[in-house]
Amino acid sequence: MRSSPWGPEASKVFPCLPVAYLGLANPTCTMPPVRRTNFGENQTLQPAAAYTPANEAEVLSLLERHRGQQVRAVGSLHSWSEAILVDGVLLDLRRLHTVELDSEDDQLVATVGAGCQISLLLKELDRQGATLPSLGLITVQTIAGAISTGTHGSGRHSLSHYVVGVRLARYDAASGKAVIQDVNEGADLEAARCSLGALGIILSVRIRCREQYLVQEHFREYSQLSDVMRAEDSFPLQQFFLIPWRWSYLVQHRKETEQARSWHASLYRAYWLIVMDYGLHLLILSFVRWTEIRSLVRLTFRYVLAAFAVRNWRVVDRSSSMLVMRHEAFRHIEIELFVRRNHLHEALRFSKDVLLVAGGKEAELSKENQAWVLAQGMQESLAGLYDQHCHHYPICVRRVIPDDTLISMASGAGEDWYALSFISYARPQQRAGFLLFAEFMAASMSRMFDARPHWGKLCPLGPKELNSLYPRFDEFRATCTEFDPDGVFKNSWTAALLDSEGITGESEPV
């Protein structure tokens, strides 16, 4: 890819550093050990040394130079979990950004440098008439970061599922030297598809692609979840939102189509940018950050917010335009919980119950859910949540088809998974209530519904609880030990995760 990564994006990963410190003159120069924060400003990195290698040879040279020290790679830092933390050697791989598209056995496969942002990858693929088979809401992530945490869209597998090869830099167990290994099959590939950075430094990814295609979309509102689910057969790419305080479902009905691109597609894109991506969010910010009047939040969501979505405006556009949002335009924090289809109705009903308590509208949950909380000994946690968080963002629900991986959130055969996203736009110093809510939801829903927190978002469960949610976690642990016997590619969070053992029928205290 000829597009330079050293444009406006260059300072986004490390906004506290001038571009001169990013290794331009000397690609292997060390950057000052300056504190760095992630997009959500809830995690701080303070590496002992940081580099921006320009090629694979420089990555190997750096590994040799820092043999025996902790080494971690970072992407765009658009993650809220502790998986991104590093206090040893940090490698920023943004300069490994090449894209090559080939045909293998009548299948399009792209070989992508680890540091290539999804946005740049999509542009290059589109130039060649291709695109990714699945897309998340944002495109600022790097390809390595996206697959390492199980990034997903709606109605398809996660990106990790489509990876057919991963090229890694690691240390050879026998010689101790830095080597490069291609992982192309078996359990090793299933581990590398979503690895949390624990196998080694990802240098490039080979991922299945497809020809560019068109998507038709329109909005509708429903009062019943059953109606939303029935529409899924006709609109398999749909995603929907539970609107708090209105408690209806606003659905983006989506499907592939052979129709031509709509003449008004550009107008629809402008509508999305101005009204949804910016107008709606600025309205929410005005209540959450500037006025903090809860009654206005509830009234707006009950009577105003749904008007932002124009009903039955059917538009056809390219998939790479239709399936993404400018979700990164305003700083926020997020927890996303994955439940199987057979638990979706109960999980959304439970979410509504908890939000009513957290928002101070109810003192207890519904009778059935309250009984469960009492049985689990979580009444004190629930009581502490009362009136602490007035939810101010639609709860996004996306369907993810099971992945062929070891530990992506949608791994494992069986029913489809549904990801429930809970988001807060409160300022970092005003997030205490949301964090209480996120901790309660993760703990309770993991016990009630075997819900799995997204690896790249808030992940408040302990290592043993996380282990127990993945039947093949022991295989993942064994693969990590084989590839990294000395644990140099772990941070403290992944080390605790990989050094613990799963449990059955027990949970850690909340």
Write the layout of secondary structure elements.
Layout: E1 36-37, E2 44-45, E3 49-51, H1 56-65, E4 71-74, E5 89-92, E6 99-104, E7 107-113, H2 118-127, E8 130-131, H3 143-148, E9 163-171, E10 178-183, H4 186-192, E11 201-208, E12 210-211, E13 214-222, H5 225-230, E14 239-243, E15 248-257, H6 265-291, H7 294-304, E16 315-318, H8 319-322, E17 333-340, H9 344-358, H10 367-375, H11 379-385, E18 395-400, E19 417-424, H12 432-449, E20 452-453, H13 463-468, H14 473-483, H15 492-499
Parallel strand pairs: 3-5, 4-5
Antiparallel strand pairs: 1-2, 6-7, 7-11, 8-12, 9-10, 9-11, 13-15, 13-16, 14-15, 14-18, 17-19, 17-20, 18-19
Key structural traits:
3 domains, Vanillyl-alcohol Oxidase, Chain A, domain 3, eight-stranded antiparallel beta sheet, 510 residues, Uridine Diphospho-n-acetylenolpyruvylglucosamine Reductase, domain 3, disordered N terminus
**What is the helix fraction of residues, given as a range?**
25-40%
CATH class of the largest domain: Alpha Beta
Percentage of β-strand residues: 15-25%
- Overall average pLDDT: 89
Which word captures the global form? globular
Placed side by side, the strands forming the largest sheet appear as 16-13-15-14-18-19-17-20
Examine the coordinates and then state which fold CATH places here, giving the name of the CATH topology of the largest domain: Vanillyl-alcohol Oxidase, Chain A, domain 3
Strand pairing plus helix content: what structural class?
A: alpha+beta
Overall number of domains: 3
Number of helices: 15
Gap between N and C termini: 48 Å
Low-confidence runs: 1-27, 502-510
